[in-house]
């Protein structure tokens, strides 16, 4: 492909060529509407052999479709001396004289516009593509096609001005950095490690998507942005997060002080403050409506928990859906009764965990969380169907799954009589399928459909990428985190010390 | 045209008409990127270009060299999933 370009297109660029080209794109390459699709389906076959495969091309000078692989379009080009053809699959323009695909600026422009038009017509069906563990940028708004990044003039300037480049190989340690403990701050350090290795969050901050609207210097989102810059700068010395600590103390007073705090509480407080400070990022669309927020925190972490209360007398169901950032699970050995499980817990294997070994699994806890619970006579609910107070059962299921799910095992018991830590080992898998806990699954079961059809459209599967562990007792303990990098490498983050870990280390840990 | 290819053509027509073909393409694209297939072949393409020289290489060269490799490297799980989805669609829209 000669860098000088193809001179043969000039013969084509006469009269109303732009409009003609557009029509070809709209009808035969990227058909957006139902009628163009129908026409494409019917007419896009080779005029010589009738096949619809084999890299079908359309002649640009007349109405002729021919296979590329079987050279039917080549024959046509030779016979009629029509030098240009268009690939119906990808929209590329081929010149038979140059014998290669050519890239004419004007034609490329038309192609891009038509593709975008067709995409818009096809609507919001295509979800934003999510590429975990791959260093790729992707579109955040649903309904916009992912297209590769092309730098703007300003960005080109910046790139030329700063010629140093960092190459990401599979063994590089960029993104791993220790955090100095500033006095029992391991509860904060462990959560920060988990957040900085959340791929979606990382990509959001590294692509500078936060536009700050806060006047003072106390925006936590800006500080997170700084933190990400520090983590991915390539420096290997541990980072001292004093500014972050100070901001946390300012915005979440209940976490201030040098005593040991609860990491889970920190996570929720941090997400809350980040969510509140994210106001500038969605062009001011929803500023005051908490239920309709579109900030990055909500996009990633918010799920919907469905609570169904069924009246025992009239069987009317009252449903509410509440947003959640994490799922707090009770453990066996706590004062709330754990056994027996709901019907269905018959010792079958789920998510590759065996029930028979006797060890509690994460799935057991989830099953318990979503079991129907009889709310005894002491807690009667007013039923709108019966117009009186009746006994009822309550059941929780997942209505909407968050992109990142946080499971919190309630190991710290703070009841009136005792304060203790439950150290029961809970095993958890590397891959988790949430389908059995979905509201839709429950409805299927109730309608007598026991066969769980494989739903290819909705992916309820999760991959583990961070585990926070607590060692020690309630009074004095220490938090550490395991995080996953590059798809299958695990690292243990113990404040300032980062060490490599194996899958086994992670799965054997307390959780 | 043989019976087999006639059936193929009919299925293709149905898929295109209902827009399902585009959706399947996007699903396939996402799956192949997710599993690293795209990156691997991109690297292969770069090798071919280096070999033949940037000025002289044509798209045809790449097609000839990369297509067989690409076909072989598609993971079975992806093939299975796409097949399942096509089956489901046809079952739903059988005439």
UniProtKB/TrEMBL annotation, chain A:
Q: What class of enzyme is it?
A: hydrolase
SUPFAM superfamilies to which the protein is assigned, alphabetical: Cysteine proteinases (SSF54001), RING/U-box (SSF57850)
Record PANTHER family:
UBIQUITIN CARBOXYL-TERMINAL HYDROLASE, UBIQUITIN CARBOXYL-TERMINAL HYDROLASE 22
Q: Which domain of life is it from?
A: Eukaryota
User: Taking every annotated instance into account, which residue ranges of this chain make up the domain UBP-type?
Assistant: 4-121
Lineage, opening ranks: Eukaryota, Metazoa, Chordata, Craniata, Vertebrata
Q: Name one GO cellular component term.
A: nucleus
Main localization category:
nucleus
What chemistry does it catalyse, as a reaction equation? Thiol-dependent hydrolysis of ester, thioester, amide, peptide and isopeptide bonds formed by the C-terminal Gly of ubiquitin (a 76-residue protein attached to proteins as an intracellular targeting signal)
**Subcellular localization, per the record?**
Nucleus
Matches recorded under Gene3D superfamilies: Cysteine proteinases, Zinc/RING finger domain, C3HC4 (zinc finger)
Question: GO molecular function terms here?
Answer: cysteine-type deubiquitinase activity; zinc ion binding
Matching entries from CDD domains are given as: Peptidase_C19D
GO BP terms in the entry: protein deubiquitination; proteolysis
Q: Which residues form the USP domain?
A: 177-511
Q: What family does this belong to?
A: Belongs to the peptidase C19 family. UBP8 subfamily.
**EC numbers on record:** 3.4.19.12
Name recorded for this polypeptide: Ubiquitin carboxyl-terminal hydrolase
What keywords tag this UniProt record? Answer: Hydrolase, Metal-binding, Nucleus, Protease, Thiol protease, Transcription, Transcription regulation, Ubl conjugation pathway, Zinc, Zinc-finger
TrEMBL record, chain B:
Q: Which InterPro entries match?
A: TF_ENY2, TF_EnY2_sf
What does the entry give for GO biological process?
A: chromatin organization; mRNA export from nucleus; protein transport; transcription elongation by RNA polymerase II
* UniProt keywords, alphabetically: Activator, Chromatin regulator, mRNA transport, Nucleus, Protein transport, Transcription, Transcription regulation, Translocation, Transport
Location(s) in or outside the cell: Nucleus, Nucleoplasm
Molecular-function GO term, any one: transcription coactivator activity
Judging by the UniProt lineage, the source's domain of life is Eukaryota
Q: What is its main location?
A: nucleus
Q: What does this protein do?
A: Involved in mRNA export coupled transcription activation by association with both the TREX-2 and the SAGA complexes. The transcription regulatory histone acetylation (HAT) complex SAGA is a multiprotein complex that activates transcription by remodeling chromatin and mediating histone acetylation and deubiquitination. Within the SAGA complex, participates in a subcomplex that specifically deubiquitinates histones. The SAGA complex is recruited to specific gene promoters by activators, where it is required for transcription. Involved in mRNA export coupled transcription activation by association with both the TREX-2 and the SAGA complexes. The transcription regulatory histone acetylation (HAT) complex SAGA is a multiprotein complex that activates transcription by remodeling chromatin and mediating histone acetylation and deubiquitination. Within the SAGA complex, participates to a subcomplex that specifically deubiquitinates histones. The SAGA complex is recruited to specific gene promoters by activators, where it is required for transcription.
Assembly behavior = Component of the nuclear pore complex (NPC)-associated TREX-2 complex (transcription and export complex 2). Component of the SAGA transcription coactivator-HAT complex. Within the SAGA complex, participates to a subcomplex of SAGA called the DUB module (deubiquitination module).
Task: Give the similarity note.
Answer: Belongs to the ENY2 family.
**Identification of the protein by name:** Transcription and mRNA export factor ENY2
Gene name in the database record? ENY2
